[in-house]
Amino acid sequence: MLRVMFNSTFYPDLLATRQGVLIGPPVQIGCGIIRSNGGIFIRTPFGFTKGLKHNQLKKIEKLAARRVAPSQIVSQDLARQMSEISLDTGRQIGVLINRKGKVDYVMVGDAKQIEMPDFKRVRVARDRLRGLRCVHTHLRGEDLNQDDLTDLALLRLDMISAIQVDLETGLPGKVHSAHLLPGKTVRNNGGSLELPYMFLEPAVPSQLGVDFISLITSLETELARSRKSSSGKDKKERAILVAVTNGFGSNVEESMAELVDLTESADVRVLDTVVQRRKKIHPKTLLGSGKLNELLIRAMQIGAEMLVFDGELTPAQVRSISEATELKVIDRPQLILDIFSQRASSREGKLQVELAQLKYLLPRLGSGNGTAFSRLAGGIGGRGPGETKLETDKRRVRKKINLLESQVRKLRKQRQERRKSRLQNHLPIISLVGYTNAGKSTLLNSLTKSNVHAEKRMFATLDPTARRLRLPFEQEVILNDTVGFIRDLPKTLVAAFRATLEEISDSDLLLHVVDVSNPAAIKQIASVVKILAELELSGIPTMVVLNKADRAKTIDIDNVERHVKIDIGQDCVAVSALKPLSLKPLLEKMGATLSRDLFEYATR
Q1: Mean pLDDT across the stretch 460-479?
Q2: Longest CA–CA separation in the chain, Å
Q3: Where does residue 357 fall: left (phi above 0), alpha (psi -120 to 50 degrees), or beta otherwise?
Q4: Considering the entire predicted model, what is its pTM?
Q5: What separation in angstroms does the CA of 5 have from each of 16, 36, 40, 104?
Q6: 28: three-class secondary structure by DSSP
Q7: Interior/surface letters 11-49, b for 16+ CB within 10 angstroms, e for the rest
Q8: Which pLDDT tens digit goes with each residue over 513-557?
């Protein structure tokens, strides 16, 4: 019989002890159940215990009472006892031993593998190991396999050891052990990650000449040093970018390059990018289970705290991936919303971004919408302790959304009044539209001699800016700088910024600014044309401005011009916003285009 002593301070559910025997209800401790056996509590082993005989189960339970010297990986007696039980049951037997030499967990597997308990594997300091070493048996004489090494990395175990069982005598054979090494992972020729493992020399239990405590102490010291040197004074969040696709490779590469720019614009450090091509996307986690484990290993090795997915995830997918990795998981729309939140400076911009964020957040507060989970309705299924925390949060978010929508409507009316006053002055309006980071603000500064904030970052400008511009033939116009577009712009963001985008609807001419030096320029043009069509703005006369022509090759400029004129049917001009002399043809074309409708402006 095993008598288990506990401190009642830490286990208040247990009643007082009598002669070292615990009296009280069964409680859950770790992965094992403390159950009563004639008044004495014994730990039930974790895993596949179904079908075991009573005496076999008793022998397995007694493993929890064994102790080894802290400096030993495993003792000869414990290894022999585990081997005999393993041969008798035909199953792998394992134990998790802490650094004091006590057995914390006893595990039972099948003939091929053993299952580890789930103890929140990632919630361990990245410069520390878990403080547990796994010792288990192998019935087929095999060495440490890939599953063993994966568990070592995922659970951040101190060490993993496999005891080979002699199937004739039941005695323990050689013990194969491995532990992690500090340092970054590398990719082999096949693209898979190779982890820095260290394999110890196999030996029988009595001849394992390794001082375990000294080894682990020096290893953790090196891990802490490696972690400190890699992070330095960088306080930015660290992320791995992930894309899952069943499409063409070139599209994925362009999208990932854009996601890198977005992530860096959000002040997040990109540590790695991972792309998985699948015939069928996994509906729950997108990635396959093997790739998900590999991704988690990679995150642990390089110190990543966040996974950024290229695309929009459903609330269920975010929840499933977060539970599997215990890392922060965000998708492309949420990343864009965060960038907008950082950039918004005006009251109107902040209101619009907050409204978009709340609309995005509402369905992700938890599963179940509407009145299905509400206890406020009363009746059958509505009685109970009252409103839950989730329902309270949702109600507050909905109330906040209604308030913000009311404020945005007021701002929209104010904008309409300001536009009316501008229209009464009979000044033509020209709006700069285009993909983000195409150089719209820089072009506005060059044309109007202004000092509007311009930066080589995505969505550097959110709040619309209007400046007066004098064209040839003594024409005076108003030039508007608008928020940039991007592929897959979140719908909540488009809805929230509709009041701002309505500024474009009163324009007499749109200048579609394109970064012609970008290899994806034609695709960016298509994205902007699509967004303008969705906003019902495609009927406004548009001129395409091929900006950054000084950085592009002549053949690339010619290809984009040909595409714009033939496929889209719009006029275009190549300029460089940083070179004022190149802007003269643009000004002349703007003046000529507006002169055609001069009579219309005069009769408004």
Answers
A1: 78
A2: 106
A3: alpha
A4: 0.68
A5: 11, 14, 10, 14
A6: strand
A7: eeebeeeeeeebebeeeebebbebeeeeeebbbbbbbbb
A8: 999 999 889 989 998 898 888 888 888 889 999 999 999 999 999
Backbone phi and psi for residue 321, each to the nearest 5 degrees, phi listed first = -70, -40
CA distance 340 to 344: 6
Q: How confident is the model at residue 175 (pLDDT cuts 50, 70, 90)?
A: very high
Helix (H) / strand (E) element for 89: namely helix 76-89
State the Cα torsion 61-64-66-72 to the nearest 10°.
Answer: 130
Mapped onto helix, strand or coil, the DSSP state of residue 363 is helix
- What are the tens digits of pLDDT across the range 470-487? 887 777 888 888 878 887
Kindly report which listed range (359-373, 394-408, 413-427) carries the lowest average pLDDT score.
Answer: 359-373
Side-by-side strand order, sheet with 509-515? 465-471, 475-481, 429-434, 509-515, 542-547, 571-574
- In one-letter notation, the amino acid at residue 461 is T
Of 148, 141, 173, 211, give the one whose Cα is nearest residue 76: 173
The set of residues, in sequence order, having a beta carbon less than 8 Å from that of 457 and lying 6+ positions away, is 265, 437
Residue 516 in contact with residue 550, Cβ under 8 Å? no
> Which residue's entry shows tokens 């990650």?
193
User: How long is the chain?
Assistant: 604
- C-alpha 62: how far from chain center: 44
